[in-house]
Structure formats: structure tokens, C-alpha cells
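Recall from the previous lesson that a structure prediction takes nothing but the amino acid sequence as input. Here we apply that procedure to FHA domain-containing protein from Flavobacterium buctense. The sequence below is the only information supplied.
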Amino acid sequence: MNFDTLIEKVKHIPYGRNSNRTDFSLVISENKGTCSSKHAFLKDYADKNNIPNIELTIGIYKMNEQNTQIGTTLSENNIDYIPEAHCYLKINGEVVDVTNPSSDFNKIKNDILEEITIEPNQVSDFKVNYHKAFIQNWIIENKISYSFEEIWAIREQCIENLSKTNS
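The prediction returns the following C-alpha cells.
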């Protein structure tokens, strides 16, 4: 299967968390995946097949009710946005987002706060720890009135809402 065909196939796999965050093959066998597992799977495939110029990227962006289909959880809690870690590929410098068939990076492009390039094995523990540290700093720097635990719980509700929308 050529890489472009595989990208299209993965884009149409339903959104959902896999049973093991570190086993990217589950994207295929469980027929579901998140932004992390789908893009890590593709980057891993590219690496193993010597496909050049593919980067796996984490972008921390201002997740809000306008740029992400998360329901009204943020407005119900009087929060404008929560920094969210989103994974995508950069192929020859161009963003490719296969999270779901309607993924459109342009919706969040102007809300990116920070980007880093990672390896596929970093989508599990590293990504989570990086994201949590970013949110902890954001809470302090922006004098957010919620605790980290409260923000993380609100974020989890947003992600659950997103999963229902994209399944």
C-alpha cells in the first residue's frame, strides 16, 4: 500500500482511544484511534519504510468551542479556552491531519501556542507529561482560578464530548 493510500485509510478510521497507548498497530486491529495514535502509526510506518520528510508534531493550541467540537463545557465553566495537545504530521513542511475525515488544521492554525517535533514512542507518557506541565504553567501565568485537577477534569469532559461527535 502506498503512503498516500494509507493516509486516506487512517483518516477514515473512527476516532477513539485504543486499549494500549503504546501499541500503534491497534489503530488498524481495533479500527479506531486518536490524533496521537493515528499520526504515530503513520510516522512509524514512514520510518520503517524509509519515507523521508515526515515529522510527527505536537501542537499545543487554544482549544475552544469555536475551533473544536467540544460542546458547551468551557462556557458552562466560564473558561475561554484550555491548552490542548494535538498531534499531526508535517510532510515536507505541510501539515497533514488525519484525526478524522473532517479534520481541518486551518481551524486551529491561528490558535497554536507552541509546537514540538517528537518520535512515535513519545505520544504516550511524554506527550501527556508535556501537556500537563504546559497546563500547570498556563494556570499560574494566567492566574486561572481553577486547580490543575479541575482544569484536567473539564478538559476530559471536552474530549469525551469530542469523541461522541467524531465517532
